[in-house]
Amino acid sequence: MTASGARDNDQVIVLVTGANSGLGYSICCRLADEFLTSRQNDNRSLTVIFTTRSTKKGNDTLQGLKDHLRASAHDPAAAARVTFVPENVDLCDLLSVRALSRRLNQTFPKLDSIVLNAGIGGWSGLNWPEAIFGVLTDLVHQVTWPTFKLAPVGMIIDNQTKIVTDKEPRLGTVFCANVFGHYMLTHNVMPLLHRSGSPNRPGRVVWVSSLEASSKFLNIDDIQGLRTPAPYEASKALTDVLSLTAQLPSTAPWTKSFYSVDPKTENDSTETASTPPNTYLSHPGICSTGIVPLHPILFYCMLAAFWLARLLGSPWHTLSTYLGACAPTWIALSSQSELDAAEAPYVAHGGGKVKWGSSATLFGVDKPASSEVEGWGHGGVVGPAVIEEDRLRRRKRGARDATAEEKELFEYLGRQCWRQMEELRQQWDELLDEEEALSWKRE
């Protein structure tokens, strides 16, 4: 190993999107806290690159993170081992995504983990009669898997290009913010993820999903969710499908090109590892964020309902975003052997990847736990859950054990989704190349 490579391995670099508030901000705080707690006796340093949509938000977030670090680290020498770096990006602006990718590739030697957290709900309001009735008569279920959120159908983003506008395909707003913008960003920073070093090698792509993901809203003929009244739930279901099938042999014809390094983004002077990154899926449980804008009184009513749901036995009501950050932070920082050991019982029974959720006990003790996914079950295992904790955990009403036929259909859905996503990515890369070439020519 070269001296430069050895120095890189002394540094852990994590990218977190959507960190100006809520869950993303808490993930950044928790990354710093857990890094310093778990690595007290070594000299490694942590760099957390976080994105916001403006310089002002980035600076405000940076100051808040520095204040948190000073308060939690106590020892200035320990705090000096953590660096926060702000970046700007608008995930609904693919040229902005491309610009961020270039800055990252030119500035950093590697990325050990990329936590894909940013996103929007896209809701226009709540069906208040249904919400009130549901919470009063079926509280735990309705504040875990709500059915009363309202969203407009067919929201699309503005044109991405100024010159090649006549060739642009439509892009759904929620789809682009929650999935496609991240998808493009992740592919573009593959050179950095391929260079992830010890102890995290290979690099990790950590998608942040939701308990509200539901395959009933995901239509293979409408993966952007332009025709569904639940585009958020559809986007999170797509996230689940892409993540859980990313490392299956059946999706390899498309994932191979996604995980490959684009020669145009590679720095010829830097060696790139041949091992593609691992993909993981997480969710924050149910915590108090501003993704659904509410009047302060209603916000505290929501919190009270969440507390009551936890008292009634819900394992998923983490309440605070700091506890909600448990699962994605654990995935981003844990050693590869620890993650492999956590998934081993599922793999041993014919399964694979797990949807890791942040769970909390009655007294707020948090830990990552497997979440059941429609058609995939717990960790892709056909039949009953193989881990006792998973069997005892409260299930969504109507949930049933995954069958071999359902798992086969899930994998088929994964192949189709990966194919469409790669075709769309390649189409957009060509359009953006043409837009940039024409813009440079005009200048």
Automatic annotation (TrEMBL):
Superkingdom field: Eukaryota
Signal peptide: none
Keywords: Lipid biosynthesis, Lipid metabolism, NADP, Oxidoreductase, Steroid biosynthesis
Family to which this protein belongs: Belongs to the short-chain dehydrogenases/reductases (SDR) family. ERG27 subfamily.
Official protein name in the record: 3-ketosteroid reductase
Organism annotation: Aspergillus pseudoustus
